[in-house]
Amino acid sequence: MENNKISVGLDVGTTKIVAMIGRKNDYGKAEILGIGRAKSLGVHRGVVNNITQTIQSIQQAIQEAEAESGQKIEEVTVGIAGQHIRSLQHSDYITRANSELVIDEEDIDRLINQVHKLVMLPGEEIIHVLPQEYKIDGQAEIKEPIGMYGGRLEANFHVVVGQVSSIRNIGRCVKSSGLELEGITLEPLASANAVLSQEEKEAGVALIDIGGGTTDLAVFKDGIIRHTAVIPFGGNVITEDIKEGCSIIEKQAELLKIKFGSAWPGENKDNEIVSIPGLRGREPKEITLKNLSKIIHARVVEIVEQVYVEIKNYGHEEQKKKLIAGIVLTGGGAQLKHLKQLVEYITGMDTRIGFPNEHLAGDSDEEIASPLYATAVGLVMDGLKRQERKRIERAAARIEDENHQNTEAATPEIEEEPALIPPPKKERRTFLDKLTERVKDFLDNAE
């Protein structure tokens, strides 16, 4: 029963590691079968800094998910983020040998492969090459060049770059946990797939995913991703500040933030006080909620302003690039009270909190639809898409084999139909699947 194959998303975060098992239901929605989470100890700002601890956390999350769903997990789709991710715009062109033929897959692959040859800083590798729009013989703003005539094919690309070693370390952790790497995805892209609607991507929207160690940004316009950035701080620095500012231990600071924290100091009355038990026989501490939210406010403003700089870098202030749907906040940090109001106040953009229920089956657990799990849900969806694509490719290969076996005369009729369906799916394979292959090869040879 190949149709109901499961897919597993593994979100290796700074604060938590989540393993989520899902499959497509009959209505094409993702149905979550089980979820496991573990405290993440070996990850700092989205980058693995202790392999042994990370492996333990991954195994714990996987076991929990297996126990809950009764499924055995073998392959996972893993997300990468972290402070080493940066993105750039690049345009490139190819000259076609024969302009009498229509532009096909291979031309686009050639163009994309050319971008992969860009010279990067030492230790960096291209993770994603995302075509923005194409130009054919100087005719601009072409969305889909396949099937058109032309001699010179050029395109603008959004290129996402990351550190090879960090990506390999994640691959190493997955492999050492006894799992196969099915795919690698950029976390802001995964979160975006889980919480944004197609209309928002068309109208123009910025997705801000506030995690524990990093804040990820993905900007969409006209249905295409236009800008990505990873800002190297998130909810954990807020907790740190509360810890320092109130002289309490981290566990208490985290609880304070979650239970009483607000991003808007004006909301708290001066006389609201929380008493925190002292350490081992010491006097309890009294903290006013006003002070607590002042500390949180200062830090959140800093994070939001950095994100806003990135949104402006994309060009939001130009009329043509305006993000009509505004901002969507997701990730664990999006649960902070009054954050939406603060973000609207700083950026002047419409804001909503993004819950990953856009593509989930209707009967999903309340808990799963929390912004906390946006990335994990996105990774599951990504895995399901990948399986779908492999299935289509296999079917296409089967049809081709059959065509070869048939007599020459019969070929044209059969050739026409199937050949038209698979290719569009194929093109998207190039970026991350190649990276996954490379990381796999590297790990296999390194053993």
Walk me through what this model shows.
Cell division protein that is involved in the assembly of the Z ring. May serve as a membrane anchor for the Z ring. Belongs to the FtsA/MreB family. It is found in: Cell membrane. There is one protein chain. The protein is 40% helix and 26% strand. It is of the alpha+beta class and 447 residues long. Among the domains are: 86-163 and 420-446, Dna Ligase, domain 1 (2-Layer Sandwich), CATH 3.30.1490; 205-357, ATPase, nucleotide binding domain (Nucleotidyltransferase, domain 5), CATH 3.30.420. It has a five-stranded mixed beta sheet with strand order 3-2-1-6-11. A five-stranded mixed beta sheet has the order 14-13-12-17-18, with helices on both faces. It has a four-stranded antiparallel beta sheet with strand order 7-10-8-9. Helix 6 (235-246) crosses helix 7, helix 8 (289-314) packs across helix 9 (339-347) and helix 10 packs antiparallel against helix 11 (411-420). The protein is globular. It starts with 6 loop residues before the first strand and ends with a helix.
Specify the CATH class of one domain.
Alpha Beta
Contiguous low-pLDDT stretches (5 residues minimum) are 411-428
- At CATH level 3, the topology of one domain is Nucleotidyltransferase, domain 5
Structural class determined from secondary elements: alpha+beta
- As a percent range, the share of helical residues equals 40-55%
Alpha-carbon distance between the two ends: 34 Å
User: How big is the Rg?
Assistant: 24 Å
From the spread of the alpha carbons, the general shape counts as globular
Query: Largest beta sheet: what is the strand line-up?
Result: 3-2-1-6-11
In the CATH hierarchy, what is the superfamily of one domain? ATPase, nucleotide binding domain
CATH architecture of one domain: 2-Layer Sandwich
Helix count, DSSP H or I runs of 4 or more residues: 13
- The biggest beta sheet, please? 5 strands, mixed
The tally of beta strands, per DSSP, is 18
Strand content is 25-35%
Mean pLDDT: 88
Main location: membrane
Membrane topology: Peripheral membrane protein
Protein name: Cell division protein FtsA
Subunit structure: Self-interacts. Interacts with FtsZ.
